[in-house]
Amino acid sequence: MQFWFEFASTYSYPAAMRIEAAAARHGVALDWRPFWLGPIFAEQGWNDSPFNLQPAKGRYMWRDLERRCAGYGLPLLRPSRFPRNGRLAARIVIGAAGEPWLPAFVRAVYHANFAEDRNITDRGVIVDLLEGLGLPSAALLASGESERAKEALAAQTAQAQRLGVFGAPSFIVGDELFWGDDRLEDALDWHVRHAA
Amino acid sequence: MQFWFEFASTYSYPAAMRIEAAAARHGVALDWRPFWLGPIFAEQGWNDSPFNLQPAKGRYMWRDLERRCAGYGLPLLRPSRFPRNGRLAARIVIGAAGEPWLPAFVRAVYHANFAEDRNITDRGVIVDLLEGLGLPSAALLASGESERAKEALAAQTAQAQRLGVFGAPSFIVGDELFWGDDRLEDALDWHVRHAA
Questions:
Q1: What is the domain partition of chain A in residue ranges?
Q2: CB contact under 8 A, B63 and A179
Q3: How confident is the model at residue B16 (pLDDT cuts 50, 70, 90)?
Q4: Which residues of A touch B64 (CB under 8 A)?
Q5: Mean pLDDT on A105-119
Q6: Mutating which of B63, B72, B159, B171 best tests the A interface, going by the most A Cβ atoms within 10 A?
Q7: H-assigned helices in chain A
Q8: pTM of the prediction?
Q9: Which residues of B touch A54 (CB under 8 A)?
Q10: Which CATH superfamily is domain A2-195 in?
Q11: Any bridge partners for residue B176, and if so which?
Q12: How far does A186 lie from chain B, in Å, by closest CA?
């Protein structure tokens, strides 16, 4: 199952924290696909998160996220700045496809942004998170800042658009798209019933 | 619990079909609140459903609705025209507050639009649905077309906006807003845990 996520996306936070254990329970292998919502939103004429552009929806989202995180037992500290540009982290993840530490790094970035209000746009924060996992931060940072990584994120974002992805998190099982943290279990069930 | 719905709204269809039985199972009394999304969308600068304005999201919604209706055992026939103006039906429902036939009429209107592709904007279709329930269609139609009913729907829509409602279906329990058919059970659980 493909897991499409964006580090700036609020509902991607609980999905990212839950998905590895949930997929394991269903016996489903995961393909981690970070992408960038910016160009997808820009196509709608949006220059900001819809949760900022639509204040009533934004107020609702923060309360709903709070209730859902409480239900999952996940900490939530509303970021003092939203959305935060998570492209550096996304480019490091794309370069780390197949690495055993990838899921832990993804969770560390989400936790920093949504449970600790740390600025994940800052290189120093990303270095801290990599070193907290015992990883070679200088090499990974250089790789994440390379032209090649920028092109890889742009290509992955273009692929998301071709697949019909319009928001995050999204899950793809065969030809079926599921959108939203609240569709994670539906997507896994679909995989078990149809793809297995 | 307040149930805010709009006859044009796709995800309001499964919510409307499910809510009376689900609320009864939870021992929760329902307050049926039809409203009109038009002015709420217009405030966002939208002159159409976001599912039409955003094609990728619209394609997803129809497939997601299909999967969810199948899961609920509800028939779905994609309407040949979307959205359909459901204001006449909404005004009849507002005038019928407390009537024992209200839930059945709401379901009949949704079924006509989303399972039979009937034009619920047409007075003749509304008359048929009322008569199918053995109701005095001429009197109810006259009441639904009155200035008083138009004012009542406008007032109820303004109240929805004041309560933070930005989409349909929405459920309100105390100060808590829940949005979407997929939050119906959460709203009922919240009522049982906090309001009861």
A1: 2-195
A2: no
A3: very high
A4: 178-179, 183
A5: 98
A6: B63
A7: 12-26, 38-43, 50-53, 55-72, 87-95, 102-115, 123-132, 137-144, 147-162, 184-190
A8: 0.96
A9: 44, 166
A10: Glutaredoxin (3.40.30.10)
A11: B173
A12: 10
Check if the interface score ipTM surpasses 0.90: yes
CA distance A114 to A65: 11
**A36-45, A87-96, B135-144: the lowest-pLDDT one:** A36-45
| Residue with tokens 């998905």, as numbered in its chain | A19
Contact across the interface for B56 and A178, Cβ inside 8 Å? no
Instruction: Kindly report the average pLDDT of chain B as a whole number.
Output: 97
Which strands, in side-by-side order, build the sheet including A2-5?
Answer: A31-34, A2-5, A170-173, A176-179
Asked whether the CA dihedral B23, B24, B30, B36 is positive or negative, the reply is positive
* Chain B residues touching A161 at Cβ < 8 A: 56
User: Could you tell me where the DSSP H helices lie in B27-136?
Assistant: 38-43, 50-53, 55-72, 87-95, 102-115, 123-132
